[in-house]
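I am still getting used to backbone structure tokens and would like to learn alongside you. Please make up or recall a protein chain and show it to me in full. Would you write everything just below, so we can both look at the same thing?
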Amino acid sequence: MSGIGGLDPSVLLGFYQSQLLGSPSALAAQRAQQQQFAASQNKGATAADNPPWNTPNKNNAAQDAKVLGTTNFLDTSKVPLSPGATSDSKMEQD
């Protein structure tokens, strides 16, 4: 693959990556990322943790029944049976 003026693009890419990795801000960012990774590794599950299936359910049975019994999600009482069956002000304007 030939680049600009016979210079291989991988040479430029390698140069810029080496410059980026040596900058103080990149080193500080890498150090902070390593510290976050180390901190996340220390937070593991223990025998004292309460699993979600053992958490008491705070739902109300009456509320659950009301939600599950809902059947009228859409109000179809005002929908015309066929298009053009009713006069619409927007349609009249067109």
Notes: The mean pLDDT is 75. The helical segments are 9-21, 24-41, 61-68, 89-93.
